[in-house]
Amino acid sequence: MGVLMSRRQTVERVQKVSLAVSAFKDGLREQPSTRRRAEAGTARQGTLEQEVQEGEEEASAGPSQPEESSASKAAWERLRDGRGVEPEEFDRANRFTPPAFIRPKRELHDDEPPDISLEQREQIVNDEMCEICEVWTAESLFPCRICPRVYHDGCLRRMGYLQKDSAVEVTETAHTETGWSCYYCDNLNLLLTEEEMYSLMETLKNCKIIPESCLTLDDFLHYKHQVHKQQFERTMPEAQEEQAALQFNALDPDKKGHIEWQDFLSHESIQLLQKIRPQNALLRLLTTKERERARAAFLALDQDNDGFIGEGECRQARHTWFRKHQKEMLSCNVSISHVGPISEGSPASSRNGKSPEKILPATKQEETRSIDWPRFLRENVAYILAARPNSAALHLQPLA
User: Where is each EF-hand domain found (predicted)?
Assistant: First the structure.
């Protein structure tokens, strides 16, 4: 506990020093312009016309240009550091110091297949003390459904991670089977290393994507076309454009006509992980809770207990368990990780009175093709990770 406290104090001290240094640099940046004005005022006896012209030049330059560049720079810095959107009007008075996120580093053995046994179950144990204040208060702690961390809702509010709507969501879902993801697990971008994040930022800059902005369908398709052309030096096929349009709809579940920046960033982060890292490396990102849900999902599909399931069943799991936790399932109080495939007549099969998304039936070839536990994990690991965020958006749309 003493180590944790000293680490937090160190972070706060570094942040204070950084603020002081930035303020000092801002002061130095302002000094030359002031000095030049003073020298110009004493060196010449300006006429009225010169003063008017000088005022017009200052007005044309205006303060908006440096303000926009500084705002854009701050947005890119937040993206690099893994922080969320922090609007200027957000009042941080009387709030805890935000955590300093440290991006992961690749290890030498990451690409080797991890030993994840189907028979050997893992015990899930949550932390006893709040991750923020390090105080134990029993039932008032809210657990994360991905990692073992627990939190006080008051501490989350003082950190600025819990607003009015999200506060209700945490208190209603944290102790249910649906669960709630903490601010570490909710941000898929924090899974990227510094090198991977630099690669993503370069792609976004080359495609003229403005950080912390919403993207319409045209913006999203234009971005996908540019990325494909940069990577393969040819136009994106029509089939891939249709798949990109389906992904946009999955990222816009409320049909607002645009996707939020955090959802776009999570989608691009999981896409980059799929491209750069092998499946064995992605398997090492799974937590104990995620591995246990995957075991329960496989065992529920393996009706004859022979250690194999059909490929159609594997695809069905991808469209149900590993796609996204549905809030509507709270009413029927069932776990999507401990029941069989959802039938059309079940309470969880409809959403807002609409017909559920249809899953294509398995072909005869899929039904005869068997999948064992290791392959089941490898093929679904990206969808398990993509289901971490609390957002209703599907950050990785399963292929039909």
Answer: 289-324
Domain boundaries, given as residue ranges, for the chain: 123-186, 191-261+268-276, 277-324+369-399
Closest CA to 247 of 72, 394, 135, 59: 394
CB 144, CB 107: distance < 8 Å? no
Q: Where does residue 21 rank: exposed (0-12), middle (13-18), buried (19+ CB within 10 A)?
A: exposed
Nearest to 191 by CA among 106, 253, 309: 106
Which pTM does this prediction carry? 0.72
For domain 191-261+268-276, give its CATH number from 1.10.287, 3.30.230, 1.10.150, 1.10.238.
1.10.238
In the chain, the amino acid numbered 26 is D
What is the separation, in whole angstroms, between the first and last Cα of the chain? Answer: 49
The closest alpha carbon to 270, from 322, 233, 343, belongs to: 322
Of 144, 352, 178, residue with least CA distance to 253: 352
Of 290, 46, 25, 284, whose CA–CA distance to 144 is shortest? 290
Residue 87 neighbours by CB under 8 Å, 6+ apart: none
Backbone angles phi, psi at 258, to 5 degrees: -155, 160
Q: What is the pLDDT along the chain (400 residues), one digit of tens a residue?
A: 444 444 455 545 555 555 554 554 555 454 444 444 444 444 444 444 554 455 555 444 444 444 457 777 877 787 887 765 554 444 555 566 666 688 999 988 899 999 999 998 999 999 999 998 888 876 688 999 999 999 998 888 888 787 666 677 777 888 888 889 998 999 999 999 999 999 999 999 999 999 889 999 999 999 999 999 998 999 999 999 999 999 999 999 999 999 999 999 999 999 999 999 999 999 999 999 999 999 999 999 998 889 999 988 898 888 887 776 554 433 333 333 333 333 333 333 333 333 334 444 545 554 567 899 999 999 999 999 999 999 999 999 887 6
Please tell me whether residue 142 adopts helix, strand or coil conformation. strand
DSSP state of 214: -
Helices (H) and strands (E) counted in the chain, each on its own, are 14, 6
Whether domain 123-186 has CATH 3.30.40.10: yes
Listed residue (364, 372, 368, 366) closest to 302, CA to CA: 372
List the structure tokens of 229: 């052309």
